[in-house]
Design a protein that fits this description.
Distance between the termini of chain B: 39 Å
Number of helices of chain B: 12
Strand content of chain A: 15-25%
Order of helices and strands of chain B: HHHHHHHHHHHH
Structural class of chain B: mainly alpha
CATH superfamily of the domain at 100-222 in chain B: MetI-like
Structural class of chain A: alpha/beta
Low-confidence stretches of chain A: 1-8
Number of domains of chain A: 2
CATH topology of the largest domain in chain A: Rossmann fold
Number of strands of chain A: 12
CATH superfamily of the largest domain in chain A: P-loop containing nucleotide triphosphate hydrolases
Low-confidence stretches of chain B: none
Shape of chain B: flat
Largest sheet of chain A: 8 strands, mixed
Number of strands of chain B: 0
Strand order of the largest sheet of chain A: 6-7-8-3-9-10-12-11
Distance between the termini of chain A: 27 Å
Number of helices of chain A: 11
Oligomer: heterodimer
Shape of chain A: globular
Mean pLDDT of chain B: 84
CATH topology of the domain at 100-222 in chain B: MetI-like fold
CATH class of the domain at 100-222 in chain B: Mainly Alpha
């Protein structure tokens, strides 16, 4: 994996997010769900976006597609540059043409993301029909090749099935086939393995890697599970309360986590090779995104917090080429 | 060996008849209303061949004859005659034509308009929804009978007046129902999925939401058959329905009103028919609702 990381610098950048800020304007005030997030994803690379529930991972994913719940959600600043084009400057119609064709997304619950009244084939055909301008037999060829890409057995028969006739794992593959049907540049996967059981989960991760190898698609993998991260991702971005606190290649994150939050997260994963009496957990709750503390957002829960941590927000520090962190404790 | 085969065959046959009988008993609430409604629709279609007499032909010497099973009745007029000597059976058969035509046309109009407005309001939300739902509220609060009377007076009674009078407010309950269903579906993941693959709002409404509300729509439309026949009968009873001499069930009830103590059959026979259709529509609607509910459906 380390060779892969070193190559990343020379690889083409597919997505560059610069200082993205997304807020929800509610009756009780502004909720800063994503507050100045920046990251890049290279061609054929998987970036893991890790964090607790409610830290803004999913909102980041939806912001990339500009599909925030209206009218409360708004992108108020930053840039989303996909292959050199700023998505925030596109019209609604141009943006629809990006969705499904250049960026695709897989939602969490495969049971719910398929329409119960259409066959699997019809649903995979929908993006092909809309974006590739194909009609008739040509559409079905593409549908079958999408089913093949996701290793779905008997594609000619499966495409006539209704969602309720398929198992959970098979449904999740169909959702994957819909997402990959137009060969997108970027795939956003929002906790796609959470609703699956452990054995299927492992299979599904292998499948994703296989798809990535075949298509060279870039993946933004949103998850809260460090176990999945270690198997799936090339690089990791750790998110806390709307900000990315640390970015590093996967092995560096595990070996040498620099932000106290990252190490706390890694420590709270149960491990077979270490005997501990009690599983580690982080004290306290994440701050309310409506009423953020003045200094570092993690300071109230941080075991190493010093005076300055409560007063000023830490800037981004570069440890080496691929490793950045926002913490006062890091020199 | 042969007898055993024979025996098991017999047994299977018995079981099959038994199962068949069980099926019939279980679906009685479907079979009866479907039979009644199809008989009525057939007699409406084939009215000119089925009716023994001309429904508007006045034969004064035969007036107020009772049905055949009463003293003085005959098979010449199986269900008797009214105060002008017109055959009640023939009038009932021809009346089915107008009553069913009115309700079908009104259902198509109201269900169509209500569904379109309901999906738009439910999916787009915001100001569009507020506006459409306030219009719906007003329509539901307005006394429909009053409006119908007003329209009959201003544009004159007739088939299309009745249809218009029943449609102009009748879409509101559909809009309400479909908007509710759409609200539920709008937050469903498969709608999000449709947005993710780049569907336009119009395409999402037509292709992804509409097929999922069709069930409720069918149930409501079936239930409306009875209601509309009742409403049409009400309008005819008040004299603002289809103008005489064309027979409608409601008008027949109205005509027989003054003879109710001497010739009860004039009002009662169309009254029974109205009751049967209303009940059949409701039963069929109930059955469809149970059948189309995916939670109750066995796969």
């Amino acid at each position: 994996m380390s060779t892969n990381n070193n190559n990343n610098n020379e690889k083409k950048v597919v997505l560059k997010v610069e200082n993205l800020r997304t807020s929800f304007f509610t009756r009780r005030g502004e909720v800063k769900a994503v507050d100045g997030v920046s990251f890049t994803i290279h061609e054929g690379e998987t970036l893991g976006l890790v964090g607790e529930s409610g830290c803004g991972k999913t909102v980041t994913g939806l912001s990339l597609l500009r599909l925030l719940p209206e009218p409360a959600g708004k992108i108020i600043g930053g840039e989303i540059i996909l292959d050199g084009r700023n998505l925030l400057e596109l019209s609604k119609k141009e943006m629809r043409n990006v969705r499904g064709r250049l960026i695709s997304m897989i939602l969490q619950d495969p049971m719910m993301s398929l329409n119960p009244v259409y066959t699997v084939g019809d649903q995979i055909a929908e993006p092909i029909y809309q974006h590739q301008g194909l009609r008739g037999e040509r559409v079905w060829e593409e549908v079958i090749s999408a089913l093949r890409l996701l290793n779905i057995p008997d594609p000619d028969k499966r495409l006539r099935d209704y969602p309720f006739q398929l198992s959970g794992g098979m449904r999740q593959r169909v959702v994957g086939a819909i997402a990959m049907s137009c060969h997108p540049r970027l795939l956003i996967a929002d906790e796609p393995t959470t609703a699956l059981d452990a054995t299927i989960q492992a299979q599904y991760i292998d499948l994703f890697k296989d798809v990535q190898r075949k298509t060279n698609v870039s993946i933004l993998f949103i998850t809260h599970d460090f176990g999945v991260v270690s198997q799936m991702c090339h690089r990791v971005a750790v998110m806390y309360a709307g900000k990315i606190v640390e970015t590093a290649p996967t092995e560096v994150i595990f070996k040498n986590p620099s932000h106290p939050y990252t190490s706390a997260l890694i420590n709270s994963v149960p491990r077979l090779d270490r005997k501990v009496e009690r599983l580690y957990s982080i004290e306290g709750q994440p701050p309310s995104l409506m009423n953020l503390p003045p200094g570092c957002r993690f300071a109230p829960r941080c075991p190493q917090a010093a005076g300055i941590c409560h007063e000023k927000e830490p800037g981004k520090k570069t440890i080496d080429d691929n490793h950045t962190v926002s913490c006062w404790g890091v020199e | 060996m042969n007898t055993m085969v024979e025996k098991s065959k017999n047994l299977r046959l018995q079981q099959r008849t038994f199962a068949w009988r069980g099926q019939v008993m279980k679906n009685l609430s479907l079979i009866i209303p479907v039979t009644i409604l199809s008989l009525l629709i057939l007699s409406a279609i084939f009215a000119p061949w089925l009716a023994p007499h001309d429904p508007i032909n006045i034969v004064m010497q035969d007036k107020l004859l009772p049905p055949f099973f009463l003293k003085g009745g005959s098979m010449k007029y199986p269900l008797g005659t009214d105060q002008l000597g017109r055959c009640i059976l023939s009038r009932a058969i021809f009346g089915a034509r107008i009553s069913l035509a009115v309700s079908l046309v009104v259902i198509v109009i109201t269900a169509g308009v209500g569904t379109i407005l309901g999906i738009i309001a439910g999916y787009l939300g915001g100001k569009v929804e507020s506006f459409l739902m306030r219009v719906t509220d007003i329509s539901m609060a307005f006394p429909s009978l009053l409006l119908a009377l007003l329209m009959a007076v201003t544009i004159g009674p007739g088939f299309w007046t009745v249809v218009l009078a029943l449609s102009i407010l009748g879409w509101a309950p559909y809009a309400r129902l479909i908007r509710g269903e759409t609200l539920k579906l709008r937050s469903a993941d498969f709608v999000a999925q449709a947005q993710i693959i780049g569907c336009s709002p119009l395409r999402i409404m037509v292709k992804h939401i509409f097929p999922n509300v069709v069930n409720s729509l069918i149930v409501m439309a079936t239930m409306a058959v009875g209601m509309l026949i009742l409403a049409e009968a009400g309008l005819s009873f008040l004299g603002v329905g289809i103008p005489p001499p064309h027979p409608t069930w409601g008008y027949m009830v109205n005509e027989g009103r003054s003879f109710i103590d001497s010739a009860w059959w004039i009002s009662t026979i169309p009254g029974i028919l109205i009751g049967l259709v209303v009940l059949s529509g409701n039963f069929l609607g109930d059955w469809l609702r149970d059948k189309l509910d995916p939670k109750l459906r066995q796969i």
